[in-house]
Amino acid sequence: MLPEPELALSRREWDVVEFLADGLRNRDICQELGLQTSTVTRYCLRLQEKLNAWSTAHILVRAMELGLLVLLDGKVQRNPLTMRVKRAA
Question: Which DSSP category does 67 fall into?
């Protein structure tokens, strides 16, 4: 059994998850967010760690399993009941 993941995602981590759910690749996410490839890659690695995922695709699987993402109106979206954004310290 995997340990319970840290579910508090930053605003940018949520942005990346949502773009991944829309089917965008890292380079497309970079363009959308105006970030470098290495920055988006770092966000994906952090998400893998937080969600106990082993790949970018598995980030979405884990987010669905944990109830962070749901299928609404035929589209994968943030679960409105579990929207938690970590506040910057």
Answer: T
Please answer whether residues 33 and 40 qualify as being in contact, where contact means their C-beta atoms are separated by less than 8 angstroms: yes
Domains of the chain, first to last: 11-78 (1.10.10.10)
Alpha-carbon separation of residue 70 from 2, 27, 35, 65, 88 (angstroms) = 21, 25, 27, 9, 26
Q: How many Å separate Cα 78 from the centre of its chain?
A: 10
Q: Which tens digit of pLDDT belongs to each residue from 10-53?
A: 999 999 999 999 999 999 999 999 999 999 999 999 999 999 99
73 is written with which tokens? Answer: 């109106």
Q: What is the DSSP string of 30-59?
A: HHHHT--HHHHHHHHHHHHHHHT-SSHHHH
Q: At residue 48, what are phi and psi to the nearest 5 degrees? A: -60, -40
